[in-house]
Structure formats: C-alpha cells, structure tokens
Amino acid sequence: MPKTVSVTEAQSKLSSLVQWANQAQDGVVVERRGRPAAAIISYEDFEELIRLRKLEQKRQALKALRELRTRVQARVQATGLTAEEAYRLAGMGEEVIQDTLEKDKALAEN
Fold first, then answer.
1. Domain that holds residue 98
2. How does pLDDT run along the chain (110 residues), one tens digit per residue?
3. Which long-range contacts (CB under 8 A, 24 or more apart) does 103-109 make?
4. Does 104 lie in the same domain as 63?
C-alpha cells in the first residue's frame, strides 16, 4: 500500500521517502490540499511505466493504421481505385505506401 504524505512533508523528508520507495518497492503519494498531486516511485518502476506507455502508444498507432487500412480497402472496393491510389489520397508518403502495399500483399497470401 503506498504511503501518503503532504507536499510539505515530502519537501522535508524527500531523501527518506525516496529510500522508502526503493526499499519497500512501493510508491509514495504526495498530496496537495488533500488531493493526490504526484508520486515518488523507484526508478525501476518509472522505467516500467515508460515502457508500458510506449507499448500503449504503439498499440494505438497500430489500431489507427488498421482502421485506415480498412477504410482504404472499402474505398478501393467502392470506387475501383487501386490500393496505391487510395493510400496516396489518404495522404501517405511514397515510402510508406510501398511498405504498406508489400504488407497488404503478405497479409493476403496468409
């Protein structure tokens, strides 16, 4: 269970709170006016948080690309455009278009 301290207490006991966060492998919640404002966590936990954030950003980007691919494929079917033309209309750069076309082809083969 995380320890909870006020901003004033955190200022006066920062060193011991950092030590506690590392040794107890638990965080310290710093409150301002009775509301959580920040946290003190071990550097190991911070690195894990950053790793998870990056993973989530990649997941969101892949989701957006899959949605774009679905829209492009629907537009291709509805208009008779080639996939390359549809990707170009979607504003993708030439290198990305070629890479995406290769991946589309590989997906279709599987």
1. 56-109
2. 889 999 999 999 999 999 999 998 889 999 999 999 999 999 999 999 999 999 999 999 999 988 888 887 787 788 888 888 888 888 889 999 999 888 888 887 77
3. 104/69
4. yes
φ, ψ of residue 52 to 5 degrees: the values are -65, -40
Task: Report yes or no: 89 and 81 within 8 Å, Cβ to Cβ.
Answer: yes
Q: Please indicate, yes or no, whether the overall pTM of this predicted structure exceeds 0.70.
A: no
CA 33 from chain center: how many Å? 30
In a domain, 47, yes or no: no
Neighbours of 86 (CB within 10 A): 22
Residue 46 lies in a domain: no
